[in-house]
Amino acid sequence: MQQPPTVNDSQLDQSSTQNAKPPYYALTPDTVIDAVESLGYLSDARVLALNSYENRVYQVGIEENTPIIAKFYRPQRWSDEQIAEEHNYLFELKELGLPVVPPLTLKGDNSVFEYKDYRFSLFPRQGGHAPELDNLDHLLVLGRMMGRIHLCGASTPFRHRPSIDIASYGEASVAFLLASEMIPAGLRTAYQTLCEDLLAQVRRIWGEVGQQPQIRLHGDCHIGNILWRDETPHFVDFDDSRNGPAIQDLWMFLSGDRNQQRLQCSELVEGYNEFNDFPAIQLRLIEPLRTLRLLHYNAWLGRRWEDPAFPHSFPWFNTERYWSEHILELREQLSALQEPPLELW
Fold this sequence. Notes:
This protein is α+β, with helices and mostly antiparallel strands. The protein has two domains: 101 residues, 2-Layer Sandwich (Phosphorylase Kinase, domain 1), CATH 3.30.200; 202 residues, Transferase(Phosphotransferase) domain 1 (Transferase(Phosphotransferase), domain 1), CATH 1.10.510.10. Helices cover 41% and strands 13% of the residues. The strands form three sheets. Strands 1-2-3-5-4 form a five-stranded antiparallel beta sheet, with helices on one face. Strands 6-9 form a two-stranded antiparallel sheet. It has a two-stranded antiparallel sheet with strand order 7-8. Strand 1 and strand 2 form a beta hairpin. Helix 5 runs antiparallel to helix 6 and helix 6 packs across helix 8. It is globular, with a radius of gyration of 21 Å. The relative contact order is 0.14. The N terminus is likely disordered.
């Protein structure tokens, strides 16, 4: 489906590195508390930083009430229109009774606020644990929920948020890394030629599958973004929502050898088909999408390297050992692209 022109995330990422100061240099615990209290809350001064690198996310204690989650958006990453689309999608899903966690609305039904040049949103705290992906009952429920989420997501595409595609996830990622100094000199040629072969295979398979419906996705649906509670998966962190093929929100649930993945996928699809029609041809896109994610992840780390949190948390990223191992990983992925696609039982 042809989408209106929009700024993709790689362009936004590059612009964010042009600032003289790191994006979160002024986001202290006091600033977090002041931002939350600017909306009428009274904090008990307890602030807990949660596991997030792209944005900054905190649990903030509230006097005589349950804590809330404050999410501060990375400056210059998403436009106001793109954030609004993410929130509106969450509101739609919640109205349909789906277990998602939309932002709180305050001050005239607003869900995005500003404090000292930071845009932020507040969310209710959602408890739970990661689903058990070796539990077939969990996979069946995940498939059902994803089928319902995608039924809503297919009703209309995002107009402002980007799509998952070869150009932005693959080609732009490789070009960025080759233009940087992240890859050790002795490994650059091996990385470049291998990526050329990978992208050629991805383009081939993508072309053979043909044009697929571009629906609104979660976009980053791994188990870290699912909280299981009371036999229900609660889907959180739609920050990477974008248009793309439905299989993108399913393939990250698969693990193990080929037979294990076939069994897992069959269980997911059985649940999905109870509410939606699973596009079986998209099984051929699993390995291409895995390839694009691998390439995009490393470019993401490279684009964020001027944020002090990244060298601190990923000190191995620009080492020769890491890139040697990554090239081996990409060679294995090239072999995976040449294998027959996954089939259902």
